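Chapter review: from sequence to fold.
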Amino acid sequence: MADAREEALRWYERLGGQIMNLPAGDDPATKQALVDAGERYNAAGSQLERATSAKQYDLARETALEGLYFVRAARTAQGLDPGPELPALAAARQAGAIREDRAVEVDGHEYRASPRYGQGTPYYYPGGILRGRRVPGGYYSEPVWKTALAAGAGTVGGLLLFDALFSPGFGFGGGGFEGGYDQGFEAGYDDAMDDHGDFDGGDFDGGGGDFGGDFGGDFGGDW
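The token string follows.
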């Protein structure tokens, strides 16, 4: 358990340093990536404070790594070297990854997804389970995961959007979506990940360091 704690702390502290040293600038996608990174920092801090087992420290490590993936996306959007490769995320491996440029129209609005950063797809998501649905990692035309959290899974911005994203016509599962790993991955892991996978901003009031107020004040109004 001590080793798991040190491993989680290592990534948590690295995330904090990266956030502190990376200016947000005026680019909306960069701001969003840093908001997401800050939320993961706060969440990981709270998880570390509550952890009493190696498994719980592993979950805190996963959360910190998610934050570092968002930092890499912010650096990419700024034209900077994204830095060294990061360990693979368990939730992202399960959710899979976008592997080709695709677009889908939902209720008269077009959404795009791509495996790479671009002007039309500047918003990054590392991949994971959102509202019980697999959201593959990659770049999106807008932060659709935020829309789903704010609007709920039963709305056009949530359920219908993800239904369209995951339909064969969109490409997920039928050519545009690279599937996840073993279906036999620990059955309890999904439930554990759900405890920290839905970041709605209101879950990180305390225990996570100083980033809650900073990110909520600096960037919260933009979204």
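Two observations follow directly from the output. The longest strand covers residues 109-114. The chain has eight helices and eight strands.
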